[in-house]
Design a protein that fits this description.
two-stranded antiparallel sheet, mainly beta, elongated, single chain, about 70 residues
Length: about 70
């Protein structure tokens, strides 16, 4: 029987782009407000734990290029 291992995969958070915070425009203030990222909980990275398999899996995020 083969042993299964958990594989930790790390991705850069697409919401904050790895910074851990986001700037939010406020209509009442001249400056943008800074908030902690709600998707990655201010870590800047997202983690995915998969079972180790023989095949390779690729995850792509859709990002706009400026």
């Amino acid at each position: 029987m083969a042993s299964s291992k958990k594989v930790k995969k790390v991705y850069i958070c697409p919401t904050c782009k790895g910074n851990g915070y986001v700037k939010v425009a406020c209509i009442y203030e001249k400056e943008d407000m800074i908030h902690q990222c709600w998707d990655c909980e201010s870590q800047g990275e997202l983690y995915d734990y998969d079972e180790e398999t023989e095949t390779l899996t690729f995850h792509f995020t859709k990002e706009t290029v400026h």
